[in-house]
Amino acid sequence: MNNLYLDIQTPMQSAHGARLLQVKTQIQAGSITAISGPSGAGKSTLLRLIAGLNTPQQGEIRYGDQCWFDGKTRVATRHRHVGMVFQDYALFPNLTVRAQLAYAQQQRNNAQIDQLIEQMGLQQLASRKPEQLSGGQQQRVALARSLAAEPKILLLDEALAALDRSLRDELQQHLLNWQAQSGAILLVVSHDLGEIFRLASRVIQLENGQIIADGTPAAVLLPQRASGRLQLMGTLLAIESAGVAALLTVACGNETVATLVSPEEAARYRVGQSISLTVSAANACVSTL
Hints:
Number of domains: 2
Organism: Deefgea piscis
Number of strands: 14
Keywords: ATP-binding, Cell membrane, Membrane, Nucleotide-binding, Transport
Radius of gyration: 24 Å
Shape: globular
Distance between the termini: 38 Å
Helix content: 25-40%
CATH topology of the largest domain: Rossmann fold
Protein name: ATP-binding cassette domain-containing protein
Domain ABC transporter: 4-233
GO molecular function: ATP binding; ATP hydrolysis activity
Structural class: alpha/beta
Number of helices: 8
């Protein structure tokens, strides 16, 4: 099993102008790690450096006992056995879905292609070209093509962001199964907390090109102390008498919420007013969807 070792420095453009991306860490073999941080933090740049699409200004990248970059040595992308799924899909415009997957294979394996097409829900689209596919469909093809190459490292940059929730959940499980069977390293850039917590056992948080946190998803992404309260913003629709209390009906997004207050408190509000509701976690009801 091969670990991925990174000790790199390179200029980058961040949301605050020019910065230096400095990353020194080791990714364990057979692990799933999420890379988080705001836009311009260096997440996509880091993935491109690992893939060999960009070259660091200085430093070292090693995979097991193989040196991919050290200033003198630079291994080309095609020799790194890295799969990449970025936000722009990068599909070949002249190839059908099936041909995209076949092109990625080291050796032709029609059974594997058929399996991936079925797992990604692409059976009815196998003979179509990218221009005939929606954005979500193209994203599924890009993911299937990367898996067809049987990579040792798979890099996902918001790879499931264009998919609806049910398909995203399904493909997350497929990725977990694939990673467990292959033993590959999986690096995931995502802004979806649910996706990070489901997939990753480790989170590296970047800000302005620097690692500012490294640990479990809970340690890095959850507040040290949760408030125990949920605040909802909405529009007051109605104020009705309810015996010794008053009933307020509030529109919060696509939901309508009713709550009881004292008549004295109700007198402070008027229909159409924007108000906030604070809900205590002690009374929360949790259920599966």
